[in-house]
Design the sequence.
């Protein structure tokens, strides 16, 4: 999967949402992410306690690059892309 979305609330201290239930398990394991389902949701998300800057640094180390970033209300979202099809 060449694309990853990560997001956090505007405070920038974490937690950081790093994937959904269809995310590559090897990348989620590399990030140390835990999978959870919020009460009332019918989908799961992966989260880490680290701030987004540290997550972005980790993803850069395995070949991901930021394609875009935006703010949506109180949420910040980054889209990253990896050129190769290798996960790790």
Sequence:
């Amino acid at each position: 999967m060449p694309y990853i979305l990560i997001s956090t609330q505007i405070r920038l201290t974490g937690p950081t949402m790093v994937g959904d239930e269809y995310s590559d398990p090897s990348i989620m394991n590399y990030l140390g992410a835990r999978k959870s389902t919020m009460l009332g949701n019918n989908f799961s998300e992966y989260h880490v306690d680290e701030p987004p800057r540290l997550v972005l640094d980790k993803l850069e180390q395995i070949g991901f690059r930021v394609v875009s970033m935006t703010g949506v209300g109180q949420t910040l979202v980054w889209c990253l892309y990896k050129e190769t099809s290798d996960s790790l």
